[in-house]
Amino acid sequence: GEIVYLDATDSTNLRAKDLAAGGASEGTIVIAEMQTAGRGRKGRGWFSPPRQGIYVSLILRPTMTPSEAPGITLMTGVAAAEALLSLTDLDVRIRWPNDLMVGGRKIAGILTEISTEMDRIDHVVVGLGVNVNNRHEDLHPQIRESATSVLIETGQVLARAGLIRAILEHFETSYAIFSQKGFEPFRQRWKELSGIIGRCIVVEMIGRTLAGEVLDIDPEGLLILRDDEGCRHRIVSGDVSDRS
Ligand code: BTN
To answer: Residues 126, 29: contact at Cβ < 8 Å?
Structure first.
């Protein structure tokens, strides 16, 4: 696929969505040195200072039903975690559905945007942001306590090009498997990296909050939660925190 490399842009996800709407093929990659309006889930931003992090978006055209698409985010989380693990000795964990964490702080996030046409997927944009060479004092005050970077955790500068390469290689291999078999081949590894099964958590969703014990992640990547009344819920996305 084509690689669109930008010095600066508003958001690589927005650029990728424009390109996809214009017919760009699967495998097109948009990567930027900085974003002026980096986007996170739920309308939040993504702090994207020049040359400190990785800001990349991938255009996919999967032939699957929209219900299988959430698995793409989870599979991408596994691929990005494996890439980080291959280059660093960080204890990388996954926080469902889309955050990579080190020591309880966020080091990377994934924003998956699905565009459907007549109940079919037209394209998916998977956006990944990784905090790589940010120093603690470089982090925006709003996220200084909740975020971290490779540099903060290891004390060493990591060449972003090598990390991008590792991420894209892991992603490519994983996506080929995902296209054939869905999320299932990644499920076990995802459970190991997330450590979420069996934990008591609170999930904040748009419009409601649920608390309970995580029983499993299902083959499509939905979280199975049992609440205090014993009712089971299948949840596609939300903000997770530990129940205190
Ligand atoms: C989140 O944690 O809420 C998701 C953050 C995703 C950030 C990445 S950076 C590259 C891509 N472009 C964006 O505007 N967002 C994603």
So the answer is: no
Q: Which atom of ligand 1 is nearest to the CA of 16?
A: 12
* Dihedral over alpha carbons 153, 87, 218, 209 (to 10 degrees): 20
Q: With 80 as the cut, is the pLDDT of residue 244 above it?
A: no
User: What pLDDT band is residue 183 in, cutting at 50, 70 and 90?
Assistant: very high
pLDDT tens per residue across span 45-72: 999 999 999 999 999 999 988 888 889 9
Q: Could you state, in order of their start, the residue ranges of all structural domains in the chain?
A: 3-194, 200-242
Level-2 CATH architecture, domain 200-242:
Roll (2.30)
Find all residues with CB under 8 Å of 182, minimum gap 6, and list them.
Answer: 64, 68, 71, 219, 220
Kindly give the distance from the C-alpha atom of residue 46 to the centroid of ligand 1, in angstroms, as a whole number: 6
Nearest residue by C-alpha to atom 1 in ligand 1: 40
Ligand 1 mean position, distance from CA 240 (Å): 18
Cβ of residue 127 lying under 6 Å from some atom of ligand 1: yes
Query: Quick check: ipTM above 0.85?
Result: yes
Q: Per-residue pLDDT tens for 99-141?
A: 999 999 999 999 999 999 988 999 999 999 999 999 999 999 9
53 lines ligand 1 (CB under 6 A): no
Q: Which CATH class is domain 3-194?
A: alpha beta
- Facing residues of 125 across strands? 59, 113
Kindly state if the Cβ of 12 falls inside 6 Å of ligand 1. Answer: yes
